[in-house]
Amino acid sequence: MSASDNKKKSIPVAPVPPAGVPVNLLSSVAPPSELPNFVTASPVLQKPSVIVPVSQPVQPAAVRDNVSMDSSQQQETFSPAIPPNKGEPTLPIRSPEDTQATQSPESLPPSTPEIDKIGDIMPGSGLLTWMKGAVSTGGILQRVAEKAKSSVDTMITTLDPQMKEYLKSGGDLYIVVASDKEVKVSPIREAFQTVFGKATVVGQAAQSEVTASQPVGYAAAYAAAKQRVAHVRSTCSHLTNNVPVIAIESYLQETVSDRWYEISLVLLSQPSLGIELQLQSQSTPVPGAAVAALAAATPADYAHAQTGYALTIGSLMADSLHVPHTEWQEATTGVSRREILSLAARSLAGSYKKLLAISAAET
After folding, report:
1. Any residues with CB less than 8 A from the CB of 255 and at least 6 apart, and which?
2. Do residues 266 and 344 make contact, with C-beta atoms less than 8 angstroms apart?
């Protein structure tokens, strides 16, 4: 080790103050030396840039190759920053030219059946046009209106049954019943209004003068019904041959020995169309003793003795059962005459409607 090195490493000694001078301990401490710096100098870091991934539109292969070559030549850098839209879908940035090209008619998807159905449901450009079409073409609005009207009519007729005749009267069908008795007119009216929707049915008093009061057998009943129809047409001058007339005639029929039944014949006549419908109602059993009583009550010189009896079966059974003459069927079997005539009249109305359709098709 050289003398120069020893001189550099020698510790300085503070001078000794003279005698009698107070000693300052701090003055003997040497000034601190500079501490070693182990931190190496580093370049100043700049604020990291935020990289937002943007999906680019599809480019041709040549352009992609050039871009890949340029990007490979560039030095990759690492950024510890997390993009703010991490985990969110990114939308491509389109230019105005791309937007116009996307909305062009050539780029729109083809029409689908669902779109065509929407066009059928809404034929017009507005709500009023659609509502008009839905009502006129029998759509949902028309069905809702019909259902509402039917509900209102049902409520009205429930509160007042007599309003049913008023609500369903009218239309193009006008029918005359050759009787003024409600037990005959009301079943015909109800049946034709049920089948045709609307119909005007009125009653007109008519009598048969060519048969007995109580016809026996189908032939006598048919003659009596024809006589009633002719009587109505002759007394009502306003009736034309185009107006159908219905007659109801009750008769007795012996099917086997001493087995008697009461049956109603319903006859509809419309000469203008050449229509004549004949229909028989459900039968009601009659005791043989009641028929024997009718025969005994008929005078020997009765003018129409060949076609039946002078008294009706209804009057005799009513006196025997102590009920009105229109209710003896219900008292005997539990089914009223009105119900029996209603079923027969409904069958008659259905057959008449089919004949009208055939006649309209032929013309």
Report:
1. 261
2. yes
| Whether the Cβ atoms of residue 328 and residue 314 lie closer than 8 Å to each other | yes
Q: State the pairing for strand pair 200-203/245-256.
A: unpaired
The strand pairing partners of 185, in sequence order, are none
The answer for residues whose C-beta is within 8 angstroms of residue 332's C-beta and 6 or more apart is 284, 285, 317, 321
The token duo for 332 is 């005997």
The pLDDT assigned to 292 comes to 94
Q: Which residues of the chain have pLDDT under 50?
A: 7-8, 62-63, 67, 71-72, 74, 91, 96, 99, 101, 104-105, 107-108, 114-115, 117-125, 166-167
pTM of the predicted model as reported, rounded to 2 decimal places: 0.56
Closest Cα to residue 52, out of 19, 14, 5, 93?
93
- Which is nearest to 218 in space by CA: 183, 266, 186, 174? 266
